[in-house]
Amino acid sequence: MECPHLSFSVCIAPDSAKFPNGSPSSWCCSVCRSNKSPWVCLTCSSVHCGSYRCDDFVVNDTKLGLVQKVREHLQNLENSAFTADRHRKRKLLENSSLNSKLLKVNGSTAAICATGLRNLGNTCFMNAILQSLSNIEQFCCYFKELPAVELRNGKTAGRRTYHTRSQGDNNVSLVEEFRKTLCALWQGSQTAFSPESLFYVVWKIMPNFRGYQQQDAHEFMRYLLDHLHLELQGGFNGVSRSAILQENSALSASNKCCINGASTVVTAIFGGILQNEVNCLICGTESRKFDPFLDLSLDIPSQFRNKRSKNQENGPVCSLRDCLRSFTDLEELDETELYMCHKCKKKQKSTKKFWIQKLPKVLCLHLKRFHWTAYLRNKVDTYVEFPLRGLDMKCYLLEPENSGPEHCLYDLAAVVVHHGSGVGSGHYTAYATHEGRWFHFNDSTVTLTDEDTVVKAKAYILFYVERQAKAGSDKL
């Protein structure tokens, strides 16, 4: 039976401790048993939907609206307190932000324009890679100069639109979120930026990185570059991204490396070519194959694997040159890697050697610090000495005589470091140089550092930028 008193819809309930029936949420109308909008009579304590046995009524307000005036006054007081507190916190934050972004340079005060990246739950692997890429000027500038991606049709066509979670799975754009993140990192308007929109897109298109467990920074970098490359090959606001790239003559003129289709800024900047040379030890047949690459993964030679620090006295220090030499030296393949010789018509013992046929504009070197032993993936914690300037790659080229000396020298732009004992644990940070100064990026914290600190780091990924012809001539 429908209760005749449902027109009363406001619950006015004093402190529940005064009533034996418990809290207001447990009260219900004694007539219709409804617990929606229960009313309590202040005279007899009966609970109903509106009319009570004592014929006394509880109403919303007096005839003069005094209760409403009290409500409005209390709301104004609450709003004023909230506004004042918000202004106070904002001022403190601005002062803190200003102080944290000031540093001493040659005795004068200068501002740090670098912005940190908030950790969204073990996302330091992503933050370290993003900060490194943001300091590769040619790569970063390309994305920052792109117009916003058009994600909607109809009424919003022709406007700049931005990704939000409500737009659905089919409208995510990795390029757009990557562009916005890069734009935010060097504006200097905030101490830390939250890359949650980018991370949401990563979850959507890279299932391997869903969840909040620690991930491998190198693996993430490869997935990121591969997916940026694939998306850049598609259309962009009705204009082919390949056409946009062709307009940038500085990138397209010397770019001959294509990976998975047409060239993009990813392959123009990071793309190089390896020559894989295999020789049959039985008949001497030689096989050559050219493989494009975006980075080189280098083993740390076994004789250095117990050398954990630069100052350790047991033997020579491992250098980046040792790792590069190990990568390019002639190697005899073992029994598990027998070469199928087309002349012998069967698998034979063979030798293998890598040559670099084309060097990239940005040389990304990955030191293989994690390896499987039995059931565990252990970390090689060896310190590897690396140069800040003048990494000479000429001796690793297939045809060094065809490359000028200025095109073989590289200077360090960024380095990713893994702190800890295993790939599934620990922490990632990055060092990068910007406008002649070195910074340490540790999630939301960005600090100024020096070259002596950088060279002591146990590098995991190194980003070297091709030196311009006018630079100095010091070499590794």
Keywords:
476 residues, alpha+beta, Herpes Virus-1, eight-stranded mixed β-sheet, four-stranded antiparallel β-sheet, 11 helices, 26 strands, 24% strand, elongated, disordered N terminus, ubl conjugation pathway, metal-binding, Znf_UBP, EC 3.4.19.12, zinc
Shape by Cα distribution: elongated
- The amount of beta strand, in percent, is 15-25%
The percent of residues in helical segments reads: 25-40%
Rounded mean pLDDT is: 75
Q: Architecture of the domain at 1-82 in CATH?
A: 2-Layer Sandwich
Tally of strands: 26
Sheet with most strands: 8 strands, mixed
Describe the secondary structure blueprint for this structure.
Elements: E1 39-40, E2 47-48, H1 66-100, E3 102-105, E4 108-111, E5 116-117, H2 124-134, H3 137-144, H4 174-185, E6 192-193, H5 196-205, H6 217-232, E7 235-236, E8 239-240, H7 241-247, H8 249-252, H9 265-270, E9 272-280, E10 286-293, E11 296-298, E12 318-319, H10 320-328, E13 331-332, E14 339-341, E15 346-348, E16 350-358, E17 362-367, E18 370-373, E19 376-379, E20 384-385, E21 391-392, E22 409-419, E23 427-434, E24 437-442, E25 445-449, H11 451-455, E26 459-466
Parallel strand pairs: 5-6, 11-17, 12-20
Antiparallel strand pairs: 1-2, 3-4, 7-8, 9-10, 9-16, 13-16, 14-15, 17-26, 18-19, 21-22, 22-23, 22-26, 23-24, 24-25
